[in-house]
UniProtKB/TrEMBL annotation:
<dbReference type="Pfam" id="PF00814">
    <property type="entry name" value="TsaD"/>
</dbReference>
<dbReference type="GO" id="GO:0061711">
    <property type="term" value="F:tRNA N(6)-L-threonylcarbamoyladenine synthase activity"/>
</dbReference>
<keyword id="KW-0012">Acyltransferase</keyword>
<feature type="binding site">
    <location>
        <position position="115"/>
    </location>
    <ligand>
        <name>Fe cation</name>
    </ligand>
</feature>
<feature type="binding site">
    <location>
        <position position="180"/>
    </location>
    <ligand>
        <name>substrate</name>
    </ligand>
</feature>
<dbReference type="InterPro" id="IPR043129">
    <property type="entry name" value="ATPase_NBD"/>
</dbReference>
<feature type="binding site">
    <location>
        <position position="111"/>
    </location>
    <ligand>
        <name>Fe cation</name>
    </ligand>
</feature>
<protein>
    <recommendedName>
        <fullName>tRNA N6-adenosine threonylcarbamoyltransferase</fullName>
        <ecNumber>2.3.1.234</ecNumber>
    </recommendedName>
</protein>
<dbReference type="InterPro" id="IPR017861">
    <property type="entry name" value="KAE1/TsaD"/>
</dbReference>
<keyword id="KW-0479">Metal-binding</keyword>
<comment type="similarity">
    <text>Belongs to the KAE1 / TsaD family.</text>
</comment>
<dbReference type="GO" id="GO:0005506">
    <property type="term" value="F:iron ion binding"/>
</dbReference>
<feature type="binding site">
    <location>
        <begin position="134"/>
        <end position="138"/>
    </location>
    <ligand>
        <name>substrate</name>
    </ligand>
</feature>
<dbReference type="InterPro" id="IPR022450">
    <property type="entry name" value="TsaD"/>
</dbReference>
<dbReference type="InterPro" id="IPR000905">
    <property type="entry name" value="Gcp-like_dom"/>
</dbReference>
<keyword id="KW-0808">Transferase</keyword>
<feature type="binding site">
    <location>
        <position position="304"/>
    </location>
    <ligand>
        <name>Fe cation</name>
    </ligand>
</feature>
Length: 341
């Protein structure tokens, strides 16, 4: 089954062609980062308008790259939520219009299920069951995964998501948007041990997270440096490292706790923050000590992309699921509401 995947939940237009027999044939992405950078974050209306401009050229591009024509496509998968409603509607309307014109089925995919399943596109994918840590711009969740659509939420952030904490902290320190890669870049040159920040909510039981206090702690430390006349690049790197280490260690402690609690030893990490190298190394060390393994996608498939939507949609289509012609999207959509395969 050849599936066209469309992703438009936020500020990336992602398109891909995934074949259930041959794997991923092509994927293309247009990132709107430059468009939103001047505003320090995503402007929803600008995002929607840009998706409209990019979608059809990207579909033509993936067809060319894969050496396919429109009539080869068996079904269309699109992100139906959660995300920005206007942006989601662009992908949903486009998918439903093409599905109607080509007389093929369409399926609305849950964006976080897409992220969660992205590591399945790599060689040596994880086997069910496993614990998944979803760490993106809008979500920080620990989920027990027993199969596609069999999700049990174990814990989540009570305030900022991990990616959001990276982005907001970077903004407070005068860094560019998106802040995750910027902080990671500075942290590489940081002096270990100069600053040590708290590991929020690790001193009590449970699997929930809270990152908003860490953001304030980081700002206060950076302002103390500046007030004492030290706004050097080295101090910025040292603060960035202390922040990153606090996030990484907090996530590692909670992942270890989730693995112990469930008795599992496979951990999947997904979403933009799973591209962070310090996080990957820390989780690799932690899972190795438990004789387990951590799985993640290539960096391009950690952040938003069409390939994960094509893959997730394909699994559900193969199980016989699809939508009727209605265009429905959901800004908020708990993943546990998804039907099991
Ligand atoms: N190397 C990195 N280190 C830390 N954070 C990173 C890194 N690369 C990307 N990020 C963060 O990942 C986030 C983007 O990830 P993603 O595209 O998965 O999120 P989103 O789609 O905006 O949110 P959601 O998927 O929850 O709707 C941003 O917050 C960005 O700062
Ligand atoms: Mg995302």
């Amino acid at each position: 089954m050849l599936v066209l995947g469309l992703e438009t939940s936020c500020d990336e237009t992602g398109v891909a062609l995934y074949d259930s027999e041959r794997g991923l044939l092509a994927d293309a992405l247009f990132s709107q980062i430059d468009l939103h950078r001047a505003y320090g974050g995503v402007v929803p209306e600008l995002a929607s308008r840009d998706h409209v401009k990019r979608m059809l050229p990207l579909i033509r591009q993936v067809l060319d790259d894969a050496g396919c024509v429109a009539t080869d496509i068996d079904a269309i998968a699109y992100t139906a939520g959660p995300g920005l409603v206007g942006a989601l509607l662009v992908g949903a309307s486009c998918a439903q219009a093409l599905a109607f014109a080509w007389d093929i089925p369409a399926i609305g995919v849950h964006h976080m299920e897409g992220h969660l399943l992205a590591p399945m596109l790599e060689d040596a994918p994880p086997a069910f069951p496993f614990v998944a840590l979803l760490v993106s711009g809008g979500h920080t969740q620990l989920v027990r995964v027993d199969g596609i659509g069999q999700y049990q939420l174990l814990g989540e952030s009570l305030d900022d998501a991990a990616g959001e904490a990276f982005d907001k902290t970077a903004k407070l320190m005068g860094l560019r948007y998106p802040g995750g890669p910027e902080i990671a870049r500075l942290a590489e040159r940081g002096t270990p041990g100069r600053f040590v920040f708290p590991r929020p909510m690790t001193d009590r039981p449970g699997l929930d997270f809270s990152f908003s206090g860490l953001k304030t702690f980081t700002l206060n430390t950076w302002q103390q440096c500046q007030n004492s006349g030290d706004d050097s690049e080295q101090s910025r790197c040292d603060v960035a490292l202390a922040f990153q280490q606090a996030v990484v260690e907090t996530l590692t402690i909670k992942c270890r706790r989730a693995l112990k609690q469930t008795g599992l030893n496979s951990l999947v990490i997904a979403g933009g923050v799973s591209a962070n190298r310090a996080l990957r190394t820390s989780l690799e060390d932690m899972t190795a000590a438990l004789k387990g393994k951590v799985f993640y996608a290539r960096p391009a498939f950690c952040t938003d992309n069409g390939a994960m939507i094509a893959y997730a949609g394909c699994q559900r289509l193969l199980a016989g699921q699809h939508e009727d012609l209605a265009i429905t999207v959901q800004a908020r959509w708990p993943m546990e509401q998804l039907p099991a395969l």
